[in-house]
Amino acid sequence: MHFLSVDHVGVAVSDLERSTKWWTAFLGEKPFFTSAESASGTDDYVGRVVGYEACDLSVAFWALPGGGALELLQYRNPPPGRVDMETYNAGNTHLCFQTQDINSDYARMRSFAEFRSSQPVAITQGPYCGGYVCYLRDPDGISIELLELRSGSVRDRQLLLAAIPKP
Hints:
about 20% helix; about 170 residues
């Protein structure tokens, strides 16, 4: 593989101010960068990148644990539409955050997050077997997964092996 890493995940939102408050509470920190990009009076750099002439949007970036960043984008031009955010729909994606204490995170977030289950669920098969997982949604319905690995799981061993420096 020729890629070095995942730099960031970008997600379009309907209201950047509302989403910034929510993601700040979720991640426990404010974004490290915010900006409003308007094509008027500029070289329309963003419009050329995304393929929308006269693009007008605002962004916010947070550092993610383990590297990479989360980028939230609110488009004003072109005018945004809405997609069906149900997890089962083709094209729907989710972010997964590994945690050391899923029960504490679940309890902390219950006041502002819509969880899909009444409590974290035990994983009974696959590479995460023995761990715990739950899904929740942000204000736009974006799916987020919380994952607590069991020490020694297949995925835990894969992560440990990946951390060993290569000669």
